[in-house]
Amino acid sequence: MLSNSSMRTPLGRVRGLGSAKSGTGHFWLQRVTAVSNLILTIIFIGIVIALVGRPYPAAVALLSNPLVAILMLLFTLSACIHMRLGMQVIIEDYVHNEGTKILAVMANTFFAIAIGAASVYAVLKLSFGG
Amino acid sequence: MAEVKPAARPLSPHLQIYRWSWTMAMSVAHRVTGTGLYLGTVLIAAWLVAAASGPAAFDTAQAIAGSFLGRLVLFLYSFSLIHHMVGGLRHFVWDMGKGYEPETRMNMAKFSLVASVSLTVLVWIVALVLR
Prior knowledge:
The complex is a heterodimer.
Chain A: H1 10-14, H2 25-51, H3 56-63, H4 66-94, H5 98-127
Chain B: H1 22-53, H2 55-66, H3 68-95, H4 102-130
Helix pairs in contact in B: 1-2, 1-3, 1-4, 2-3, 3-4
């Protein structure tokens, strides 16, 4: 138990802070990216089907098409945000040691950003002429 | 203040205590497929970087993707993607405050497996026909 030496009342201390300290922001962004993922994943599957068995020049031509490239960038962004949020929930559910949990949540963020940066770099490089 | 040891509190039982049900299995599957998709993004990013690196790297990536193991991973990845997507649709229904009746929950859980398996097979048929 915290000693109650502070002048602040218990209500004042917790007001505006849920157990997650961030309200419904996490939940809502998970849902927003779920909606965008739904649309973009169907498009992504279509792009991959169109790429199956294509030789290099044809594959590059398709991936560097402006519309395809923009959709791939949106898919990357949406998926990386969504997967970061989802993995954070899994970590918070199963990793109970506070220090390990903080490190794992941080590593999760780094992973999502690294995957996003690599994919965005690749799509832009293809788009802007290899 | 003297250290007060908290009494051993009862914990709610975890997965292994309960009889498996469709809803539970599909819930676990949602998490497992999500984790698989998360790890699999390494392969997607690697494939895109290979394409951006030039013909030699791209051909290597295509050869790996076209091998038996590569195709197996691709099949599991596509199934995970579609299963997670269909499972997400169930969550949208619940988010709207609907679909909580026991029978509806069971039916949606069963449907999500049937739909995701069928859609995955359909996607592969389309891909193989078009190539």
